[in-house]
């Protein structure tokens, strides 16, 4: 585990430097879907300081079991509105907000616990029917609406490009999200920060970094293949 995490961090650093970026701008999210708490604990012990989870029930169990360990928890899966109350309690950052309805419920639940919930807007950059996310054309309007919610803080964008055997083929989609982020940032919407780009996974994270990613979601390269 330690060797795998060190190797990924070395690759992150190399990709950042190749793009003329400061490696400290990029943070590693250890995508721990289906991994037991003991395995996640091992990752944290060996330097994984952000844990990404796709399922609320899994995250509830694991975060409760690992309260003694220092890590930030991010939600990176599809979030159902009826699970927003749990998401607001567990996660420092929710990567996958894609509707006003979902944003409103997260805002409501965060308000109940006196929290300002940091979120990212998920953009379906390729328009794939099988994936959630707002269209690039609708993203600015959604963010303008969300900006009014008192208990939310929109911090950037997230995307999942089509799967390719060659990670380089995902580069145009990462570049498109980066351009969209810059366009939204230029609108200077009050209360909105476009500092984060969550994009890139095990097979394509180096291209994502070179196109501006600040958060890369790495599962297989850290935890190995899932059953």
From TrEMBL:
Q: Which SUPFAM superfamilies match?
A: PLP-binding barrel
Where, per the database record, does this protein carry N6-(pyridoxal phosphate)lysine?
33
Locate the Alanine racemase N-terminal domain: which residues?
7-225
Q: Which Pfam families match?
A: Ala_racemase_N (PF01168)
| Keywords, alphabetical | Pyridoxal phosphate
Query: CDD domains, per this entry?
Result: PLPDE_III_YBL036c_like
GO MF annotations in UniProt = pyridoxal phosphate binding
Cofactor needs: pyridoxal 5'-phosphate
InterPro entries named among the record's database cross-references: Ala_racemase_N, PLP-binding_barrel, PyrdxlP_homeostasis
Function field? Pyridoxal 5'-phosphate (PLP)-binding protein, which is involved in PLP homeostasis.
Task: Please give the PANTHER family that the UniProt record associates with this protein.
Answer: PROLINE SYNTHETASE CO-TRANSCRIBED BACTERIAL HOMOLOG PROTEIN (PTHR10146), PYRIDOXAL PHOSPHATE HOMEOSTASIS PROTEIN (PTHR10146:SF14)
Query: What family does this chain come from, according to its entry?
Result: Belongs to the pyridoxal phosphate-binding protein YggS/PROSC family.
What is this protein called in UniProt? Pyridoxal phosphate homeostasis protein
């Amino acid at each position: 585990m330690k060797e795998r995490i060190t190797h990924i961090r070395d690759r992150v650093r190399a990709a950042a430097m190749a793009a003329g970026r400061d490696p400290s701008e990029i943070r590693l999210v250890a995508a721990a879907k289906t991994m037991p708490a003991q395995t996640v604990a091992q990752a944290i012990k060996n330097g994984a300081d952000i844990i990404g989870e796709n399922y609320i029930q899994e995250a509830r169990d694991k975060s409760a079991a690992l309260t003694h360990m220092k890590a930030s928890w991010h939600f990176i899966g599809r979030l159902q509105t009826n699970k927003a109350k749990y998401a607001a309690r567990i996660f420092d950052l929710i990567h996958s907000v894609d509707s006003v309805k979902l944003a409103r419920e997260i805002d409501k639940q965060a308000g109940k616990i006196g929290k300002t919930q940091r979120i990212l807007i998920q953009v379906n950059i390729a328009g794939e029917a099988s994936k959630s996310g707002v269209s690039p054309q609708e993203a600015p309007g959604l963010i303008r609406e969300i900006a009014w919610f008192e208990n939310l803080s929109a911090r950037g964008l997230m995307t999942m490009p089509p799967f390719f055997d060659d990670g380089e083929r995902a580069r145009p989609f990462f570049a498109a999200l980066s351009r969209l982020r810059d366009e939204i940032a230029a609108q200077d919407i009050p209360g909105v920060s476009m500092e984060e780009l969550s994009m890139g996974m095990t097979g394509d994270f180096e291209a994502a970094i070179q196109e501006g990613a600040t958060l890369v979601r790495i599962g297989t390269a850290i935890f190995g293949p899932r059953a």
